[in-house]
């Protein structure tokens, strides 16, 4: 099976000083781009659907390697896919836990291998994939990353079909994968050299998101929407309580940072930042608390009889609010049946729209001491889960 590439850049969606994928429409009205374009793999679409794809007859292939540059802070997602025989033989390169993961199906063989250096460090890396006889080789920055050996007992017949290539998704059913992974990738690819081919690639959308030139880790909210979780995915016992931790300069943000609400109940909790006044206001039921001091991290703990707020900075500050017995049922039911939103205020309507959406970067979010991945939320397409523009 022949292999493919070259690409890179991490970043996300709007456009600061970044690169765009240049393209034009083909006769069918589909946008075509060059394989060397800089592409933001995080663009909104069906999660398994590739961002761009192309096809070529195997007889036109003169090279058995592909190179590209790649950048991301995302630990998991689909990068590159190729297949022959209409998808019977296929290859997938992705990340899982930050490590390269190659999965290959060929004739009677299914193989997966994970290893090499972690690639979700936000730096540009040059990747090369080549087919060397019975081996598929992945090189990272000029050094060997992964080597997969494959030999079938069946006689290999000449292949006279087309080769399909895709970035940011797969062209087979994900149930065929040996190792399942979350496909959404907040990352960028550039400078692709795909089997030395010059054929154009077809994009799934008319406008392609740019990649920021410089990025840093975090979740970026552009002020256009929010991310919502069901609180039931974070089960708690009544006596254990629940803890949230938010990293970042909240006083430099603008809009609703976080809110909690159960259906047909009053808003339980909200944090709203005002960039102009440098104030962060916390609302819990009828209680309201305004913070004006700069801090690096905010820790909020709900327990049966109190809510505790810790502002962590040069001088940490702790504030406690009692929870009365009459408020306890509302607090517990809101957590058992409600919604947790980041970047917006949960409202009364079915569309859950409320006050001003957040503009800013949350460097890190934890719930119950575990990092929260916004890829698992129902979120607006403008939110980038793992990177913020510098």
From TrEMBL:
Primary localization class, coarse: secreted
InterPro entries per the UniProt record, alphabetical: ConA-like_dom_sf, GAS-SHBG-PROS, Laminin_G
One GO CC term on file: extracellular region
Domain of life of the native organism: Eukaryota
Keyword Phosphoprotein: no
Cell compartment(s), UniProt: Secreted
SMART domains, alphabetized: LamG
Keywords for this protein: Disulfide bond, Glycoprotein, Lipid-binding, Repeat, Secreted, Signal, Steroid-binding
Pfam families: Laminin_G_1
Molecular function GO terms recorded: steroid binding
Laminin G domain: residues covered: 36-211
Signal peptide range: 1-23
SUPFAM superfamilies per the UniProt record, alphabetical: Concanavalin A-like lectins/glucanases (SSF49899)
Keyword Secreted: yes
PROSITE patterns for this protein: LAM_G_DOMAIN
Biological role stated in the UniProt entry: Functions as an androgen transport protein, but may also be involved in receptor mediated processes. Each dimer binds one molecule of steroid. Specific for 5-alpha-dihydrotestosterone, testosterone, and 17-beta-estradiol. Regulates the plasma metabolic clearance rate of steroid hormones by controlling their plasma concentration.
Subunit-level organization: Homodimer.
Protein name: Sex hormone-binding globulin
């Amino acid at each position: 099976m022949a292999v493919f590439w070259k690409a890179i850049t991490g970043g996300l969606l709007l456009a600061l000083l970044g690169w765009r994928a240049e393209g034009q429409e083909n006769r069918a009205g589909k946008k075509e781009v060059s394989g060397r374009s800089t592409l933001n793999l995080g663009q909104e679409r069906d999660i398994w659907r590739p961002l761009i794809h192309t096809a070529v007859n195997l007889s036109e292939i003169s090279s058995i390697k592909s190179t590209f540059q790649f950048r991301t802070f995302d630990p998991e997602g689909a990068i590159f896919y190729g297949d022959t025989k209409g998808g019977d033989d296929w290859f997938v390169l992705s990340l899982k836990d930050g490590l390269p993961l190659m999965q290959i199906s060929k004739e009677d063989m299914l193989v997966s291998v994970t290893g090499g250096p972690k690639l979700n460090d936000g730096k540009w890396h040059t990747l090369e994939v080549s087919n060397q006889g019975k081996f598929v080789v992945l090189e990272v920055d000029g050094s060997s990353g992964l080597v997969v050996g494959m030999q079938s007992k069946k006689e290999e017949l000449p292949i006279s079909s087309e080769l399909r290539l895709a970035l940011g998704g797969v062209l087979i059913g994900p149930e065929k994968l040996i190792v399942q992974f979350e496909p959404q990738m907040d990352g960028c690819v550039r400078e692709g050299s795909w089997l030395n081919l010059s054929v154009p690639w077809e994009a799934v959308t008319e406008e392609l998101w740019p990649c920021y030139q410089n990025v840093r880790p975090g979740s970026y909210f552009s002020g256009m929407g929010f991310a919502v979780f069901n609180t039931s995915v974070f089960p708690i016992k009544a006596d254990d309580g629940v803890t949230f931790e938010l990293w970042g300069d909240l006083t430099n943000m603008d809009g609703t940072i976080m809110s909690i609400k159960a259906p047909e109940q009053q808003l339980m909790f909200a944090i709203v930042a005002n960039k102009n006044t440098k104030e962060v206001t916390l609302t819990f039921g009828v209680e309201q608390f305004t913070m004006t001091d700069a801090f690096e991290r905010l820790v909020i703990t709900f327990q049966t009889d109190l809510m505790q707020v810790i502002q962590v900075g040069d001088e940490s500050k702790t504030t406690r609010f009692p929870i009365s017995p009459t408020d306890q049922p509302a607090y517990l039911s809101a957590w058992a049946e409600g919604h947790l939103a980041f970047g917006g205020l949960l409202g009364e309507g079915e569309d859950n729209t409320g006050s001003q959406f957040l503009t800013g970067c949350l460097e890190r979010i934890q719930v119950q001491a575990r990092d929260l991945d916004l890829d698992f939320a129902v979120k607006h397409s403008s939110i980038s889960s793992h990177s913020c523009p510098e």
